[in-house]
Amino acid sequence: MKETRKQPGTCIPWQQKLKELGEIKGDEELIRKIWQDNDALAYIYIWHCLLSF
Question: Consecutive sets of 10 residues in the chain, 53 residues long: mean pLDDT of each?
């Protein structure tokens, strides 16, 4: 069985997304922060849907 390690509150970790994006032209820290904020919102939304219905 494959073991996955993700930080709590994430759907797709930044390191995995960074591999998909390739070379970043610009402020990588800004892009990382925006990605992690949006990813956390997706995680909260999924849990909200699971627990509310």
Answer: 76 93 93 96 94 85
